[in-house]
Amino acid sequence: MVSYRLARERTVRAVEAGHRKQEDVCDAQPELRRVAHHHATALSEPCPICEGDDLVAVTFAFGAGLPNAGRLVADRQELRSLRQRGKPATCYQVEVCRQCWWNHLRESFPIDGTDLTSSAT
Ligand SMILES: [Zn+2]
Predict the structure, then answer these.
(1) Ligand 1 centre and the CA of 67: distance in Å?
(2) How many angstroms separate the CA atoms of 93 and 107, rounded?
(3) Which of 27, 41, 93, 121 is deepest in the core (most CB within 10 A)?
(4) Residue of 108, 94, 109 whose CA lies nearest to 28
(5) Could you tell me the residue ranges of all domains in the chain?
(6) Is residue 110 classed as helix, strand or coil in its secondary structure?
């Protein structure tokens, strides 16, 4: 797992210091907004920009045989089916604020393509 916490902190600090405009970092695209409304997991921390309590996480998978724009991983079931595909992929989790549309990469993790449930056989 790769954490993007440092890059995130840097971005938040740059906005606080006035080096970056809030509208530049609160720029979630329409598709991301849609996904954030319908397929997101609530996060238990406030938005670092507006301090609202509507911060959510969405996950996309990229890899061979997946759409170029990534495949939405809406739930654990979806994650399991990706693992069972037998092909490697990388999942990216993005946090989105549904109040100010702040968005930033949180973490990425690989899926190696080996089905965990079949390793016992
Ligand atoms: Zn916000």
Answers:
(1) 29
(2) 5
(3) 93
(4) 94
(5) 2-111
(6) strand
d(CA 47, CA 54): 7
**How far is residue 63's CA from residue 46's CA, in Å, rounded to a whole number?**
31
Ligand 1 midpoint to CA 16 (Å)? 13
What is the 47 CA–ligand 1 centroid distance (Å)? 5
CA distance 51 to 49: 6
Give the pLDDT confidence of 17-68 residue by residue, as tens digits: 999 999 999 999 999 999 999 999 999 999 999 999 999 999 999 999 999 9
114 sits in the region (left: phi over 0; alpha: psi -120 to 50; else beta) called beta
Residue 55 CA to residue 46 CA, distance in Å, equals: 6
CA 51 – ligand 1 centroid, Å? 6
The whole-angstrom separation of Cα 78 and Cα 1 is: 19
Is residue 33 within a helix (H) or strand (E), and if so which, with residue range? helix 30-38
